[in-house]
Amino acid sequence: MLAALYVAELVREGAAAEPGVLPVQLALAAPLVVAGSVLLAVAEQEVRVRALTPRLRRWVVWTPRVLLLLFVGFLALLSLDVFVPGRSAGALALALLLHNLPALVLLGVAVLAWRRPWVGALAFAAFAAWWLPAFAERAFPPSVALLMAGLPPSASALFLLSWTLGDRSAALRSPETAPSAT
Asked: Which of 36, 143, 156, 159 supports an S-S bond with 125, CB 3.0-4.6 Å?
């Protein structure tokens, strides 16, 4: 459903008319669609059976971590616009550092949140609270705004869900090393 709405917005914006733009936009939107799908699957299972399957629990544990790393990579990729002809090496280094500060902070969050999902939930919520107003000031097309503004709160919700489900370390261990329930 989210994918269909996103494609409809891209078509409305005219991105589908430009060759090669639609596949790139869809690839960039895939993490947001995955996050939404996992959240919807959790809600459905909670309503229907009041419990999550082990497979869905693993999705809840791993999805926010992977989303965080993908988002950090995407932010770092966006910083490559500082490379313009005529800039000195010092100016390039400073511009690259300033453009990568959010990515570097989130990379540190990834290290801390790997075993402590509550850190990821709080940090991504704080990042979203800073990012959304700063991002809203710019005039981006709705598809880009949805993608860039939707991922931090979705990942924060998934980190929070991972923490509240008590999967702080059980799903991160391999089945052979996990303590048995018997």
From this structure: 156
